[in-house]
Amino acid sequence: MESRPATMAKPSRAGAPPPCSCLPEEITFWEILVRLPPKSLLRCRAVCRTWRRVTCSRDFLLAHHARQRSLPIVSGVPGSEYGGARYQDILSFNHRAASAQLQPVARLNASFFVESSCDGLLVLSKSSNSVTCLSICNPVTREHAPLVDFT
After folding, report:
1. Is residue 124 predicted with pLDDT exceeding 80?
2. CA-based angle 23:26:30, to the nearest 5?
3. How far apart (Å, rounded) are the C-alpha atoms in residues 151 and 149?
4. pTM of the predicted model, to two decimals?
């Protein structure tokens, strides 16, 4: 007699238990998921509707944001000199660190100027030959891209 390989039955969606049913939801959401990095949290939203609903809620997002590390800040003293050129430092800000522990993650020379910042992103300008070019920069990832002139 010929034996057939066993096949697995497809799981039923209707009666399936929620993910991590062995843990209380309070621990799953407020102790585990809230500690994930943002990219991993986005992936968790695809697990089930309950996880998506909770991880999109205002309270959860505020708790998640409060646990994220601080974003960089820009520091510089007008007229400061470094190698004969004015400069600005981009610092990794940690409110728990003493000022002696703050170390620059990047240094901008006199040809760049920080126009604006938002959520750790910087808008930089560089002028040459009476033309100003704008770029957006993420000092954490060390990525940058030119901004298109909208005029």
Report:
1. yes
2. 115
3. 6
4. 0.39
